[in-house]
């Protein structure tokens, strides 16, 4: 007699467990060491059973990537849900980005800092559609912020607005990356409350950049 199907909630819990194991392997051992067998061994499941939930390590990785960008997207949108002033929106965006990058260090690393495959690597494969979904979610985040920035600085034009956004992003990414990799901590004589300090430092840099662009209006 065949086993009854697992409840949907249980299936989602198992998928989450599998995804967490895959993320841990990518971060600790690198994408090249991600395999269905390695994941199965981590969570006490047979590799054959793992295929009931995901078709390949690429599907696992791309699902993680899509989920990470969606999580960031949701965080940014939530922070500006009740704000009308575009400059204030940018400040909220900066704060939310810093918090996300530090709180979700492993997600942030696979999004922007690993040498794992990207969309172009999956073109022409069965994973192309999922890879595009991951890329599209990332583009949605960028365009969402770009729209707010364009609203804040309408006189600069779309081309200049993109350059401004890249400058803001590069500065935020740089400071949180220094923290996530432990570099900033090494510069501290007394690293107590380093997390709060780096958040304050990153946000201060972001505010100064916004102020600089505002003064040029």
In short:
The protein is mostly helical and 217 residues long. The protein is built from ten helices and no strands.
How would you describe what is shown here?
The chain has about 220 residues and is mainly alpha-helical. The chain has two domains: about 1-55, Homeodomain-like (Arc Repressor Mutant, subunit A); about 60-215, Tetracycline Repressor, domain 2 (Orthogonal Bundle), CATH 1.10.357. It is about 75% helix and about 0% strand. It has helices at about 10-30, 35-45, 45-50, 55-80, 85-105, 105-110, 130-150, 155-180, 185, 195-215. Helix 1 packs across helix 6 and helix 8 packs antiparallel against helix 10. The protein is globular and about 65 Å long.
Question: What are the key terms here?
Answer:
2 domains; Arc Repressor Mutant, subunit A; 10 helices; 217 residues; globular; mainly alpha; 73% helix; Tetracycline Repressor, domain 2; single chain
Task: Describe the secondary structure blueprint for this structure.
Blueprint: H1 8-29, H2 36-43, H3 47-50, H4 57-79, H5 86-103, H6 105-112, H7 128-152, H8 157-180, H9 183-186, H10 194-215
Helix pairs in contact: 1-2, 1-4, 1-6, 4-5, 4-6, 4-7, 5-7, 5-8, 5-10, 7-8, 8-10
């Amino acid at each position: 007699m065949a086993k009854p199907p697992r409840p949907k909630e249980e299936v989602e819990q198992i998928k989450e467990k599998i995804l967490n194991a895959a993320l841990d392997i990518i971060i600790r051992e690198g994408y090249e060491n991600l395999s269905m067998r390695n994941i199965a061994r981590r969570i006490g499941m047979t590799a054959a059973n793992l295929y009931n939930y995901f078709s390949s390590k690429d599907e696992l990785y791309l699902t993680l990537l899509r989920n990470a960008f969606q999580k960031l997207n949701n965080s940014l949108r939530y922070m500006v849900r009740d704000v009308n002033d575009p400059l204030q929106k940018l400040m909220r965006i900066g704060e939310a980005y810093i918090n996300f990058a530090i709180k979700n260090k492993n997600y942030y690393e696979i999004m922007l800092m690993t040498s794992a495959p990207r969309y172009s690597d999956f073109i022409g494969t069965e994973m192309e559609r999922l890879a595009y979904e991951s890329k599209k979610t990332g583009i949605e985040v960028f365009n969402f912020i770009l729209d707010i920035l364009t609203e804040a600085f309408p006189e600069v034009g779309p081309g200049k607005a993109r350059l401004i956004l890249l400058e803001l992003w590069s500065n935020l990414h740089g400071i949180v990356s220094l923290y996530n990799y432990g570099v900033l901590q090494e510069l501290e004589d007394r690293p107590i409350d380093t997390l709060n300090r780096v958040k304050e430092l990153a946000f201060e840099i972001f505010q100064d950049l916004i102020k600089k662009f505002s003064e040029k209006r």
